[in-house]
Amino acid sequence: MSAAACWEDANPKLPAEILQLLDESNDPALAGLELLIAIPEWEVDLPGGKRPSQTDVLALTRNTENLVVLGVEAKVDEPFGPTIAEKRADSSSGQSERLAYLEKELGANQPLSDNIRYQLLHRSVSALLTARAFHAPIAVMLVHSFSPVSAWRDDFAAFCSALSCTQLSDDLFEVPNIPGARLLLGWCKGNNHFLSVDLPSAL
Questions:
Q1: Which of 1, 3, 91, 103 is the right S-S partner for 74, CB 3.0 to 4.6 Å?
Q2: Residue 10 phi/psi, 5° resolution?
Q3: How far is C-alpha 121 from the geometric centre of its chain's CA atoms?
């Protein structure tokens, strides 16, 4: 709800804090992005498993340099779901196939640590696959956190470290050795004002 209220308030632009995060990288490819369309609950099919990965907001953006895909995972206090260890402990052959696929797409040369949160893998690969589908040279998996204490930031940091990311700014990282598009991982602190904003029902 907080993310929906934030994005509705910013329409037709990106939320200001997201623009600031990307601008602070000092990368011309990420500067001054214009929002083309934002799609809630964007689904991406992945090998194995029973359900597609569902991204909270898929935003197509552009500047004078290129097209950039933002896959946004909105959070307040809820965690990133089970760890890789928990998924492996109760995994079907399809789930094992999906995990191996995700690790390969993320350029991992060996299985990722058991303590990494599985949701971060499939949200990142979903953003990457969407960028490839739109022939966009850059994909960003962005955690839009409305937690006053930045809950679960440590899990995000562990994920970036496990992938040997290059730090572009305090909250933006690039995954190395990704074919077909650049993959960036970002943590963006949302405006706490939207924690107490209610959107009118569409019904």
A1: 3
A2: -80, -20
A3: 9
User: Are the C-beta atoms of residues 103 and 47 closer than 8 Å to each other?
Assistant: no
Buried b (16+ CB within 10 A) or exposed e, 41-65: ebebebebbeeebebbbbbbbeeee
At 151 the pLDDT is: 95
- Nearest-angstrom CA–CA distance, 59 and 170: 22
pTM here? 0.94
Do 106 and 99 contact (CB within 8 A), yes or no? no
**Tokens found for residue 41:** 């609950």
pLDDT tens-digit map of 130-158: 999 999 999 999 999 999 999 999 999 99
